[in-house]
Amino acid sequence: MADQRAKRIAALIKPLRVKPGSKVNLARDFDPGYKAGFLTKADGVELLQTGIELLADYQQRLAAQDTYGVLVCLQALDAGGKDGTIRHVMSGVNPQGVQVSSFKVPSAEELDHDYLWRYAMRLPARGDIGIFNRSHYEEVLVVRVHPENLDREKLPPAAKGKGVWERRYREINDWERYLTDNGFKVVKMLLNLSKEEQRTRFLKRIDLPDKNWKFSAADVRERQWWDDYQRAFSQMLSATSTDWAPWYVIPADHKWFARTCASAVIAHTLIEIDPRYPKVSADRRQQLQMVKAELEAEAPRGAPADPFAAGEDAGHDRKRASKKTAARNKAETKAGA
Ligand code: AMP
Ligand code: MG
Question: Does ligand 1 lie within 6 Å of residue 138's CB atom?
Fold first, then answer.
């Protein structure tokens, strides 16, 4: 059963994975409107539910094992659906095991450090899932499209000259490899939106009063640089999709499909990690039995020594009894028919 679900998920996300070493042209290679042959939203949403269930189960094991951490990086243009994706995909998990970090224009303190510093400060602990709503990839996206951002980063001359982007790709790959080698899996998703769908979503933010708060005129002005962003995305995907931390390009024009895919990518990662509940050692089991005996000895007069075990037994008895009744009813119905 779990295997079957894992297979469906793996098949869904395979075409979204950017092959390490391939040269990507985003517009040519990935269609924002793709929906994997799903005819209806209902089909996709059922798979989203599967992904959410798997995530909840695997997150518990990840936390119990306390060996691996997962870092999910979400990139998109404005109105790409990052916030809604996080809200839906993480709806089933224990909030104690997940931290979401959003990255805005860097503060003065952040600019006073190396460019990866603020991201490193937000890395998840072992057992946790960290979600980056925007990530260190802004450092080769918005900073590349608007190089005045680079000027603000107070870099020494040698660090901002020719080849700065190639160097940043290498540094990011190295950093992610270091994290992976040390137990922190990095999952990267680009929500790939079409220009026309972005226009529609901006208009919706104007048309619907309770969406007005999300509208920003600056976001609309940023559309002038659409082609520059597409180029920066293509270059980023080509240079930083690695064997240890591949990129997934998530078709984002249909929100339900984007969410289904995002949950599938994260679930797939956890299935691959395959976290296990820690095994209880013989010593520890013996210790548990000793404490159990002490607690049983504390039972008040008339109370079962272990109310939980007694309840469990009663539960089994009840189940057995109702099974018997069901079988008898079935037999009687058959006989009567
Ligand atoms: P939002 O996510 O809509 O709240 O906007 C955050 C803004 O911060 C976006 O316009 C990003 O492009 C911008 N931003 C994020 N990271 C950086 C960075 N490292 N340098 C400059 N701008 C950034
Ligand atoms: Mg914005």
Answer: yes
